[in-house]
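Form 7-S
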Amino acid sequence: MCRVIGFWLLGLSIPFTFLSNLTGEKAALIAGGKGFPTKTLELLRLHESFADVLTWGSPIFFVLWIFFFFRNMENKRIDHLALAFLGLLSAIALATGYLGIQLVYIHSVGVP
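Output:
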């Protein structure tokens, strides 16, 4: 398998991560003024925290990965470390999505 396919996938996902964060912040502002219970607002803050970690962690990891990859291309440990960080970013993305589903379908945040 090509070693640089992860670069492409992560690099292409970064603009969409920023776009989803911007739309999520707009939706959170609208939802914040509707008087939801405290538990819902705490879940919204947790969702927003995960989204911020994902939004800013992805480009930082992308730049560091490119730097270390091209600095020592023969070192396979960089590939293993990158796979671990990609797994971590994927877990954060899944947790963010799960919290978003909870907010919409259970707590009716963003539903007219």
